[in-house]
Amino acid sequence: MSLTPTIREVHQALESLPSHDGDELQRMQVAATVRSFAVALRQSIGRAIEFAEESLLSEAHGVIADFPDLLKQSVAWNGVLGRQDGVGSFARASCDGVRAGTEAEHDRIEQVMLAYGEREAALRGFRRACLEGEGPAAMRQRLRALMAADGGAGAWVAQLAAVERDWIEDVRRRLHTSIDEDELIAFADETRRGGWAARIDPEFVRLVESRAQPLRDKVAQRRFAALASELCAARAADDLAEVDRLERMWAELQRLTGVMPNDDVVAAVAPIFAWSAETVARREREANHARALDELDLLLLDQANAQSVLTAWTRIRDAAMPVPEGLELRAIRFIQLHEEREARRHRLQLIGGVAAMLVLGGVLTVAVVAFQKSTERRAAVDAVIAAIEANDGDRAVSLAEGIEKAHPGALNAAERGALDAAVALRDRLVAVEARADRELAAADEALAAQAPLPRVALLETSLRGLLAEAGLSNAAKTRIELTLVRCTARRDEIAGGHDTIARAAMADADHLFKAWPPPSQWSARERADPMRWEQYKAALDKLGPTLAAAKSQVSETERASKRLEPDLAAVKDRLDEATEKMASLDAALRQLDATEIGREITSEQQFIDRIKSMLKGQTGVVLGDLGLRSAFEESDQTDDAMLALAEWRETLRPSLLAHLGPEFEVADDPAVAQKVLVEIESHLRKYPESPLRIALEALRDRQDPAKRQLVTTVEDVVAALELDGYAGLQVLNLRQQGRFFYRRASVDGGPTKGALEDALDLIESPDKLGTASAIKADQVRGEAVASPVSVVWADGLSRLRGARVSVVVPAINRMLIEIAELKPNAPGQDALMQLAALANLSEIAIDGLGQPVDADRAREVRAWIEQIRKQNAGLLSLDWVKAAYAPEQTTPQHRREAAELVRNFPLKRGMTLVSSSQRLGGLSTYSPIGVMLAEDDKRGTRRVVLWRPAHEVLAISQSLDRSTLVPIRVTSGTASDAGLALSRGPILLYRDEAEQSKP
């Protein structure tokens, strides 16, 4: 319920005011009531006018409806304010400057109410159509009707344009896939009608028309067939109303499509149409007959005029339809009585007439003579007047002069007036003929001089006005009509020339639009090419003035001028789009320039923000068009690693140096060691992608008493590898296919001297090996060859002897990879021996070196060994020495399984095991020194921007879900990233400050 007082309440409150100032509280209450009403009234009027000015008719009417009788209350309030007594003064004072409604505002509100009443049904229909999701064709008709009713208001135009654009895009999207035939035809018909608020591509219109034209006849025939079946059903039910409705739909379909139905369909519906027409005519005759009977009955009851009764009876009798017997007898009796009365009246009139004629005969004889004379003079005047009315001036003057000669000096007023009018007519006709001669001469001269269209239009207007002059001679009319024909020919000639100019300009536009499709149809590379945009804009800049000049030349011809408007609008739209796109592309390319990307920074966060900003907005779109977005996204994924290096450089490393010294020694104080552990763990949790993770984990393990271990000596490792007995083995083939045996190369003697009979002989001293009993010398075939696994094992031992502790893990890593890479078909190669050596050496690497190795790599190798133990346990326990020569020990399947397991060994070339003794070497200070730009498909190297001279720099590499720093050598401002697993986008480069400080 509204709390705003009404004008009636305000009026009652004002009238109840005491005449004195005694009750101040009551006066304050009344003043508050008056002001509340005035403010509410002002707000409602203001909002209604504001909505009306913005063409929001429904909203304006809603405001008016929310304030009951707004117009009446405003007018009444103005009357209260206009009072000159105490009530009016108090009301004006209580308003405190709140303006009342003006006469103009009242008129505007009344206009809004009238307009809403006229358009309420249309607006309700529009709202219902929006809620029900009505199709775009019907919605477009509704909006056009509302727009026309609102005088082309901008709000309706905007909504119409939005609906049309959605419809165009929907048809464009489904044109080649799933569009319905009826919908396509409806769209094509709407484009034919024109009047679109949205811009529609002429090429697209032609494409739609070419697709819709063949469908129109087919769809129309289908609809004719459907209507024919409905007509047959309605005829079978004798439903004349339904047949009539379907017949109107049939005619409307013919009118809209211009298609004639097939002969079979016409033959089917022709009897129905004939039955409908016959039935309608019969019913109309019956209705007319019934009305005639009722009319006759009323005439007889009212004793009407006999002629009316006779006319009605004649019409009924001519209809040859049944008449009620009583009504027929009454009508015949009435007519007979009338005839009898008329006969008596005629007889009485005849007798009286004869007597009167005898009396008047004498009088008439005297009057006839006088009448003849006056009649002759009136006839002469009438002849003059007739000649004047016929615009025959010469004849009128001649007749008037004859009257003057017949009655000299005795002309009456009528005869004198006729004479003056005849003379005036003759003078006017002479002037008209003279004017016709002048204007025809001027027209001949202008047409001979190829008059322009405005001059031709003036001539046509003047000649048509002259042709309408009364009294113009037939010869002059003929000349004027011939001249008008020449004007029409000149107009057609000008229009033809203008059409030629327009067609030439439109051909230029079509050629350009064909050569330059819309940017939305360009490829990604083309959209990111500034030169292509320049060429595109230059072509549009050249075409625009050409079309404008052509339009100026044909401006006098509306048809040719209108034909150029779509192309002019298209060029303008494309120019606006090109200007906008070029500006945004230029800004994006400036941001992606090498100078901008490689601009020096003071912190990693600046570089991270720079990359993220390039992935946003238009720059990100350009990156996608250039095919670089994924590369920049890869760079964006290294932000955690860069921030980790920044915190290491600025916070963690200074703290660790303060606690542990420059060599990061083990802390003597357990509290200090615990603090170091907490700081390192916090850093690694915050930055799991830290490139220094391996080194920091090693430093953490050194500080943790529970993980600190003593490193096994090189001599112990060498002794363990020598004890395994894989070094110094030869392979000799037997005569049996696929059989061979192993022997020690250091044992002299026959081929079976120093041969190994089982795996236990591997750890036996060579000088204790005798001649093999299970192998006969006459079975040996060929010469002995060195075992490839044995060669790798021996090379590894030679590298380890006398080496430092830090060399142990790299040497073992190299042995593992070289054994795994041995070719299965190499001379002397055996997959079973290869698998046994890999498994043995892997266990030594991850568990027997006394120094923790890379956790990720160790986990992968340990998983490989566990897989063998679970799925192929027999291969590890198999005596591969005996299986080489004993047929019952193994099968080819065992060797294939062993070869497959070797191929699945996780360590590959380029991967390294890193021990704790090696990891601490990477805890230097790393500072940004430059940027490696995004990779270029056309170049094998990548451009590098350095802020200070350097040859060796570091970059963040991400491989196997782990970040590391890899060295890169810069040569002549370029560097190669082959095999380094670097991101393809811009990369922040670092330098090792410790290396820079070395002499």
Helix and strand topology:
Blueprint: H1 7-15, H2 24-53, H3 57-66, H4 70-81, H5 86-95, H6 103-132, H7 136-149, H8 154-174, H9 181-193, H10 202-236, H11 240-257, H12 263-301, H13 306-318, H14 325-389, H15 393-406, H16 413-448, H17 453-467, H18 474-515, H19 524-527, H20 530-553, H21 558-591, H22 594-597, H23 604-614, H24 617-626, H25 629-636, H26 639-660, H27 670-686, H28 693-703, H29 714-724, E1 729-734, E2 740-744, E3 780-786, H30 788-800, H31 808-820, H32 831-847, H33 855-871, H34 873-877, H35 880-883, H36 892-903, H37 916-919, E4 926-932, E5 942-946, E6 952-959, E7 962-969, E8 974-975, E9 987-992, H38 993-996
Antiparallel strand pairs: 1-2, 1-3, 4-5, 4-9, 5-8, 6-7
Q: What's the count of strands?
A: 9
Q: Could you report the average pLDDT, rounded to the nearest whole number?
A: 76
Number of helices: 38
Span of the ends, CA to CA: 92 Å
The helix content, as a percent range, equals 55-70%
Structural class: mainly alpha
Radius of gyration: 57 Å
Major beta sheet, strand line-up: 8-5-4-9
Overall morphology: elongated
Give the percentage of residues in beta strands: 5-15%
Largest sheet: 4 strands, antiparallel
Low-confidence segments, ≥5 residues, pLDDT <50?
Answer: 915-920
Explained architecture:
With 999 residues, the chain is mostly helical. Among the domains are: 1-133, no CATH class; 287-362; 450-580, no CATH class; 714-916, no CATH class. 67% of the residues lie in helices and 5% in strands. The protein contains 38 helices and nine strands. The strands form three sheets. It has a four-stranded antiparallel sheet. A hairpin with a 2-residue loop joins strand 6 and strand 7 (962-969). Helix 10 runs antiparallel to helix 11 (240-257), helix 13 crosses helix 14 (325-389) and helix 15 (393-406) runs antiparallel to helix 16. The longest helix has 65 residues, at 325-389. Mean pLDDT is 76; it is low at 915-920.
